[in-house]
Design goal:
By secondary structure, this protein is mainly alpha-helical. It is built from 12 helices and 2 strands. The chain has a two-stranded parallel ribbon with strand order 1-2.
């Protein structure tokens, strides 16, 4: 690799890592809009004109009147004042504004590096994939919001929220992987088939766990069983498969979702514990050995936060930010860090 190629790879890699940071902030903003019930406050998707918030009282009243036509206002927030509406409007507007800023950073960076000829042939395909996933994420985001604007829905559909979230995780992971390809020297890669396969298995379970975490959030299922270690004083809940048909329990039954989410957390903790100790015998790179403790530390932190998220859910006060919301946000952030830690480990360990 020439010095010029190395410099261009480093510059593009830094740009992508900044994109990873912006994506983490965006996902956290999405969590805030969900926890504050702000997601349905803006009833239109104006890509250009929607970048500006209402600038005078007349515009604010127009937006408020549009919100009053939604099921969320008519069935849940009839006591809202204009001041209450401005609070939830801000978070949804800021969430969309940050998405626009990410688009600008991507577009400006892409044009700059293209003109400077920093891109090589191997970068073109990943760039196109990043653009497609980002555009798809925006479209799914609006489809998700639209699901809560009709009928008797007071929140967005949990399944669409889960799809929106898992696409965001995919975009985050792919951007991080792409950056690692440009930033991490290949001499740091460890070749060990068993560890690679074990890492893939854990990563697959973690993605499934994130889906059920999103379903937990979408159904606001923490309050359905605010106890630990049992679920409402039951180890195996009687309502586990109460819904008909049977498969609907996995996406609609709060107790089933609770049970699976907790079970996967215990299983992941055990597997990551085993993974950590089995990797001691692997002849790997310095970077691999120095960072393999990170997933283990994060999974125990995540279990701790998950327990306290459930236990503090009894203190939820509608339209108020409190202990539950802070812990739930920390739980989401740690989940993202866990995912990135295993993307990191997967990059450092190869089958061949």
């Amino acid at each position: 690799m020439t010095q010029a190629t190395s410099a261009s790879n480093k510059a593009v890699g830094n740009w992508l890592l900044f994109g990873v940071f912006m994506l983490i902030v965006q996902i956290l903003l999405g969590g805030i809009t969900r926890l504050t019930g702000s997601g349905l406050s803006i009833t239109e998707w104006d890509v250009v004109t929607g970048a500006l918030p209402p600038l005078n009282e007349t515009q604010w009243l127009h937006e408020f009147n549009q919100y009053k036509a939604t099921p969320q206002y008519r069935l849940l927030n009839t006591s809202f004042t204009l001041s209450d509406f401005k609070f939830i409007f801000f978070w949804e507007w800021f969430h969309r504004l940050w998405a626009r800023m990410m688009g600008m950073v991507f577009a400006v960076g892409f044009i700059y590096f293209l003109v400077k000829r920093y891109f090589n042939k191997e970068m073109i395909k990943p760039m196109i994939i990043l653009f497609i996933i980002g555009a798809l994420q925006g479209a799914v985001g609006w489809i998700m919001v639209a699901s809560g604007l009709t009928g008797d829905a007071v929140y967005v559909k949990p399944t669409r929220l889960a799809l929106h979230f898992i696409l965001a995780m995919g975009l985050l992971s792919y951007t991080f992987w792409f950056a690692l390809k440009l930033k991490v020297d290949k001499s740091q890669i460890t070749v060990h088939k068993k560890t690679f396969n074990f890492t893939i298995a854990i990563l697959s379970l973690l993605l499934l766990q994130l889906v059920f975490g999103a379903l937990m959030a979408g159904h606001k299922a923490a309050t359905a069983a605010p106890s630990w270690p049992t679920i409402n004083n039951e180890w195996i809940p009687k309502a586990l498969f109460a819904e008909k048909p049977w498969l609907i329990n996995f996406i609609e039954n709060k107790i089933t979702i609770h049970f699976i989410h907790r079970g996967l957390a215990y299983l992941l903790s055990l597997l990551i514990f085993i993974w950590y100790f089995t990797t001691e015998k692997v002849k790997g790179s310095v970077l691999f050995y120095a960072t393999r403790i990170i997933p283990l530390a994060l999974v125990f932190l995540q279990i701790f936060l998950g327990i306290f998220t459930v236990l503090t859910s009894v203190r939820i006060v509608p339209n108020k930010w409190g202990h539950f919301e802070w812990i739930a946000q920390a739980h989401q952030l740690t989940g993202m860090c866990m995912l990135l830690s295993f993307i990191w480990m997967l990059y450092l360990v190869r089958r061949k």
